[in-house]
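Q: I have 66 residues here and want to know how they pack in 3D. Can you give me a structure?
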Amino acid sequence: LGWDKVRFPAPVFVGDTLRAATTVIGLRDSASRPETGIVVFEHRGYNQRDELVGVCERAALMRRRP
């Protein structure tokens, strides 16, 4: 549904090895679609020295469990 608070606190260089980590930071029901919900994720990217090189929040429409 959208990206928010996108930051790149450190540069990324050619040859860097990157890894990502994701955390669910919010859940809520969809007002218009009762079979779905809105999930807010925080994605973080790290380089080979475990330095934070990117972070953002992302909202996604997800299907609910039956």
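Q: Anything worth noting?
A: The mean pLDDT is 95. The chain has no helices and four strands.
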